[in-house]
Design a protein that fits this description.
Chain lengths: 323, 227
C-alpha cells in the first residue's frame, strides 16, 4: 500500500491538471461560442435600443436600430446628444450623414463585407487573448447578462469584457481596458427593444438633415505594395489587396479578430517625423518613410496601445514580390 | 560763511526732500501702487544706495518665499534689469499695437510644435519675469520692511551669501510643458482634415471587422467634423 501512495498522489495531480486544462478549453470554447452568437445576433435580430458610449471625458448617447425587411438588412446609428450624426447601412452600403456638412456615400469594395464578418476569427483570437466566461450573471438594461472576458496575452492589444443578453446573446455592454485594468472605453445599453415596429422610411436620411450631398469616389481594389516585417500574434491583413482611396492613398486593414488597425499610405513631398495622437482607446500615428528616394506619408489608426502603433510604423516595408 | 552755511543747509534740505520722495515711490512700487511716474522717478534716481536697498529687499523676498521664478541671477543690476524689462515690455506692446494697426482679419491655424511651444513659453516667461518680481515684492512689502531690521547682513552690499542665494534657478516650468522624452516627436493635430477623413474611414472599416454591428461607429461622433 505504501508503495502505491506516491503513484496515487501523482495520479491525483494529473487528474487535477487535466481537469483544469479541460475546464480552460471548455471556457474558451464557451467564450468563442458566445462571441460567435453575439456577432450573429447583430445581423439576425431586430432591435431598437439606446446605448451610452463613453471614452475619457466624453459621453454620448446613441440610438441603434436594425431590421431585416424583404431579405434586405437595414441598420441605423443616430447620435442623440451632439451634432446629429447619423450612419445608415442598407445591406452593404454605408451612408454617413453629417448635418450641415456633407452626405457621404461609400460602398464597400469587397462585397459582401458584412456577411463575411458574421463569424468570429477563432484562431486569431486565441493567439491574442485568454478567454474567460464569468460564472456569475449580472443585469444590464433590465436584462440578465452573461459576461466574457478577453485577457490579452501580450502588451500589444487591449483587454475586453463583454456582457451579453442571456437569452439571445446580444451585446449589452462592452468595456475596453488597458493591460493594467484601466478603463479606456465603455459602451452600455440603457434600454433595448427586440420587437420593434420598424419601416423602410426609418432608414432614409431626413431631407433637412444635411445641406448638400457629396459623393466620395468609389474606392477601388488595387495591388498591395506593402508588407510588415513584424506583426503582433494573431494580427493579419484583412484584405489580400489594398483599397485605393482618393488622391492616391492606399488603405490596408490589420485585425486580430477583435480590434483593427487601419494603415494609410500616400506619396508626399515633405519628410515628417513620428507624430502621435492619443484619443483614449484610439491611437493615430503618422510619419514619412523613404523608399528608393520616394517619400511616402504613413498614417496608422487603431484601438491598440501606442507602442503597437509605433512598432507597426517601423515594420512596414515594400513588398518584395510585387511586379 | 553764512552764505556757505545757507547753501549747505539748502543742499541738505534738498536731499531730504528728494530722499523721502524716492522712498515714497519705492514704497508705492513695493505695494503695487506705483504709477508710471513713480517708476520713472525711481529709475532716474537710481543711486547706488537705492539699488542696493532694492536688491536687498528682493533677496529677502527670495529667502522668505524660495521662489525660483523670482530669482535675480548674478549678472546685471536689479534696477537696470527692471529698466530692461520695462523697455522690453514696451517694445512688445509696440509690436502688438503695430499688428493691431494692420487689422489682421484671419489667422491661419498654426501647427503646434513642441519646440516652438517651449520657445514661446520661454519668451513669455522672460517677458513676465520683471512683473513677477515686482508683484512678488509688493505682496510681501510690509513683511519685508519688518524683516529688514534684523536682517542687515543680508542687506549688506556685496554679500557673498546673498549672491549665492540669488543663484538658485529651476527650469521646472519648461519641463512641465514638455517632458524631455517627448521633445523628439510632434503631436498630431485633431483638426487635420486629412486625419479626420482617415479616422472616419477607420471607424467604418472597424465596424465591419469586429462583429459588433455598427456600434464601433459610435466613435465617429466623437471626432470633429471639419471639411
Amino acid at each position: 500500500m505504501k508503495v502505491n501512495l506516491p503513484l496515487r498522489i501523482f495520479c491525483l495531480l494529473l487528474c487535477c491538471i487535466g481537469a483544469n486544462v479541460v475546464k480552460a478549453d471548455t471556457s474558451e470554447a464557451e467564450a468563442l461560442n458566445l462571441l460567435r452568437n453575439m456577432t450573429q445576433s447583430f445581423s439576425t435580430l431586430s432591435y431598437d435600443g439606446v446605448f451610452v458610449h463613453s471614452e475619457a471625458l466624453n459621453m454620448n448617447s446613441m440610438r441603434i436600430r436594425h431590421d431585416l425587411m424583404a431579405g434586405v438588412e437595414y441598420e441605423s446609428l443616430e447620435d442623440l446628444d451632439g451634432d446629429k450624426v447619423e450612419v445608415l447601412r442598407i445591406q452593404d452600403n454605408v451612408i454617413s450623414v453629417y448635418p450641415n456638412a456633407l452626405l457621404t456615400n461609400r460602398r464597400t469594395p469587397l462585397p459582401p463585407m458584412f456577411n463575411r464578418f458574421k463569424n468570429v476569427e477563432s484562431e486569431r483570437l486565441l493567439k491574442g487573448y485568454d478567454m474567460i466566461v464569468e460564472p456569475k450573471t449580472s443585469r444590464i438594461a433590465g436584462r440578465d447578462a452573461v459576461s466574457v472576458r478577453l485577457v490579452p496575452r501580450d502588451n500589444y492589444r487591449y483587454g475586453h469584457q463583454f456582457w451579453l443578453d442571456k437569452d439571445n446573446h446580444f451585446l449589452l455592454k462592452h468595456d475596453m481596458m488597458k493591460t493594467d485594468g484601466q478603463l479606456l472605453e465603455r459602451i452600455q445599453f440603457t434600454s433595448v427593444n427586440f420587437d420593434p415596429d420598424l419601416k423602410q422610411e426609418d432608414f432614409v436620411p431626413k431631407k433637412d438633415s444635411y445641406s448638400e450631398p457629396v459623393l466620395d469616389a468609389q474606392p477601388r481594389r488595387v495591388k498591395n505594395l506593402w508588407q510588415f516585417d513584424w506583426l503582433p500574434d494573431g494580427f493579419a491583413l484583412v484584405w489580400p489587396e489594398a483599397r485605393s482611396l482618393d488622391e492616391g492613398t492606399s488603405m490596408l486593414l490589420l485585425s486580430d479578430g477583435m480590434t483593427s488597425v487601419s494603415v494609410f499610405v500616400e506619396p508626399t513631398m515633405k519628410a515628417k517625423k513620428l507624430s502621435i495622437l492619443d484619443m483614449g482607446a484610439t491611437i493615430a500615428g503618422e510619419r514619412s518613410i523613404n523608399v528608393n528616394e520616394h517619400l511616402y506619408l504613413l498614417t496608422m489608426v487603431g484601438e491598440v496601445p501606442e507602442p503597437t502603433i509605433e512598432r507597426l510604423m517601423m515594420a512596414i516595408v515594400p513588398r518584395v514580390d510585387h511586379d | 560763511m553764512a552764505e556757505l552755511n545757507d547753501r549747505f543747509t539748502d543742499q541738505q534740505d534738498d536731499e531730504k526732500r528728494r530722499a523721502p520722495n524716492s522712498l515714497l515711490s519705492f514704497s508705492a512700487m513695493l505695494d503695487g501702487e506705483a504709477t508710471e511716474q513713480d517708476i520713472e522717478q525711481l529709475l532716474q534716481m537710481d543711486s547706488a544706495e537705492l539699488a542696493t536697498q532694492a536688491e536687498g529687499f528682493h533677496l529677502i523676498q527670495q529667502v522668505m518665499h524660495k521662489e525660483a521664478d523670482m530669482s535675480v541671477g548674478l549678472e546685471g543690476h536689479f534696477m537696470e534689469r527692471v529698466r530692461a524689462g520695462i523697455d522690453a515690455e514696451d517694445d512688445a506692446d509696440l509690436n502688438v499695437n503695430n499688428m493691431d494697426s494692420k487689422v489682421l482679419n484671419f489667422t491661419a491655424p498654426v501647427k503646434v510644435d513642441s519646440t516652438f511651444d517651449i520657445e514661446t513659453n520661454a519668451t513669455h516667461a522672460k517677458r513676465t519675469d520683471w512683473r513677477m518680481m515686482l508683484s512678488g515684492m509688493a505682496v510681501a512689502a510690509s513683511v519685508t520692511f519688518v524683516i529688514m531690521v534684523g536682517s542687515n547682513q543680508l542687506l549688506a552690499p556685496n554679500s557673498s551669501s546673498a549672491h549665492l542665494l540669488a543663484e538658485v534657478r529651476l527650469p521646472a516650468q519648461q519641463n512641465a510643458l514638455a517632458p524631455l522624452d517627448k521633445l523628439d516627436r510632434d503631436v498630431l493635430q485633431i483638426d487635420d482634415v486629412r486625419l479626420q477623413h482617415y479616422l472616419r474611414q477607420h471607424a467604418e472599416q472597424a465596424a465591419m471587422t469586429v462583429g459588433q454591428g455598427m456600434i464601433p461607429m459610435a466613435r465617429v461622433v466623437s471626432y470633429p467634423i471639419k471639411e
